[in-house]
Amino acid sequence: MSDMNQQSRRPLVRVTSEIGRLRTVICHTPGPELLAVTPSNREQYLYDDIIDLDQARREHQRFRAILSRFAEVLDVRDLLGDIIDEPEVRKYLVGRVMEVASSEPLGGELFEMPGDALVSRFIEGKEAPQGPVSKLLHKVSYELPPLPNLFFTRDAAMVVNEGVIIGAMRYAVRWTEELLMKALFLYHPLLGNGGFIYDGTEELRSDYTIEGGDVLILRPDLAMVGLSERSSPAAIEGLVEGLKEKAGIDHVLLVVLPTESPAIHLDMIFTMVDRTHCVVYPPYFFGPSRLPVLHYRPGDAGVKAYDDVFSALKQVGMEMQPIWCGGQHPTRQEREQWSSGCNFVAVRPGVVLGYSRNEGTMRELQQEAGYRIVDAIDFLTGKDQVRDGDKAVIAFDGAELVRGGGGGRCMTMPVCRDDIW
User: Fold this and answer.
1) Which of 84, 119, 249, 314 is the most exposed place for a label (fewest CB within 10 A)?
2) pTM of the model
């Protein structure tokens, strides 16, 4: 299908908030691509530690099982498998992936591969043949890099209203992710949309980067965007104009994160869990270290600065009550922010999924905001249920998943939610 056909199809995706009832979501269960990460190359692959693959898969499968009780869960690998044998899709993906690969002969090999094997190759990469020096030094390099971060599907693409943002990833090891996600939104019949708000696959300037963890859609007319180590000012300015012109966003609150920060994205310090509740990392929102906020109206000549996020939210008619990640103690706050204690994904207003290890955050949700804490196993076996009208956190184990540096929001790319505003 051409870009023109993609633009003319009836939109099948729509996300107008962070918390509307989830209908369809894209995930990717981690696979052999994680085995490429070693102690010596982990920083290259953006990891602080290496992950036990089998345990991570079990944890992710349980997470998906919970999601599937509320929504249709689509898989990146399956979606690619649906379309990979279409000649136009194969031509597009092989041609674009070869811009990332380091081996010219690889292109011909990729064109000839069976569909399932080609999808695996895109995700798991291909090692380069070892020469005598590589063998002597016990070094492995790749003709096509693997994608051990792909299970954080939020970063490489995001739906805003009926349009799509394709990320411009900060690091080259994630560039193939952009291409795979763009192909899905260009060609897959289940993902008809209103067109690209921002297309990071066409962004060839090194200082123009944007990732989905830095973009929150709070209302159909309101977005919050993080200026972080992964998202640059120049790209954000382009994104803001696209949000206005192609998605109808009238207000953007720009949160300026510190240059040196344990939070690589905005959603690691702020996520919505209900219409009036959000979970935040306290040092960044209260006290002398609170982050500056800019109210950016597309088309206006300038921006208005606020001393804190909550004043800015009030100004645009969205008063929020913060729930403190880690509770009241600074040490626990810091530990739980590091373990994705702010990173919740909502399946409907007031019902969210998060890591069970963040006990201080769970207590705060329970005691300060009246949320029930529901154990994932109890929920899946029917021992505990979440009924309409309940405010609840479904707490699941993620001791291995969290080593990758993300939580429930990072691991989900919603493509359809019910409107709530």
Assistant:
1) 314
2) 0.93
